[in-house]
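Re-run with default settings, no changes from the original entry. Doing this only to confirm the output is reproducible before filing.
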Amino acid sequence: MPGQQGLRVFHYPHRYNTRVASPYGGGHGEGTGAGTAMTDDQFSAAVSAVTSAFGDPTRRRIYLFVRERPDGVTASEVATRFELHANVARHHLDKLAAGGYLTVYVPRTGGSAGRPSKRYRPSASGSPLGPPQRGNDLLVSLLGRALALLPADQAAAMAEQVGEDYGRQLAAGIAGGEGPRSSRVALQAIADALTAHGFEAHAEARGASLALVKQSCPFFDTARQHPVICAVDRGMVRGMLAELSGATLRADSGSRARGDDACVTFV
């Protein structure tokens, strides 16, 4: 598979120790720290996050180009450098931003006429080829227990609001002040962002509808005991979708916490 030549996997039954190495030579750190095992779901999400962001060779070269320019670049500059259409360059940059590998900002104009182009610069989070971000197991478990002490409807509303607020923050970092996107484009950006946060997510068409499919979840163990935790996930998607396109969620269909193969949300 493209972009995975540097992946070394040491297999143990149902657990993994991983090192995700740079395809350009040399290592980029341990998957979860030396000696720390990953579950099957965490391993799948880590591989999915890396390959989604860096599986395309042009995107890898663009990331290296941006990494050498701490003041950032515009889509137009990338298009010129790599002889791409501006929309194609923007797609690659947005894909990297959704994964958390680049940040987006709009420089101040200082009173000059016209709106400045948004710029992309390397994220301060460190190596791009480490594992996806995952919630701390203990904190998520404690959150589930705390929410279980509240009436069910109040707990669900609170959990979804927390998720929505965080989702809006994530989306603001991706959009960089850009106007609304189509539901399809927004949903793909959401899938990339969720994958970088420990979900193995993708967008697909199902009949006349669009669906967000999540095949692993960093909240899974706690959600099985406290299903209200799923409201955090739903809120994140709602917040990102509202911020990126103004669209709304229609319904959830399928939940891994309830024994289904995947969590599916329709838009």
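The chain has nine helices and ten strands. Residues 1-35, 131-135 have pLDDT under 50 and may be disordered.
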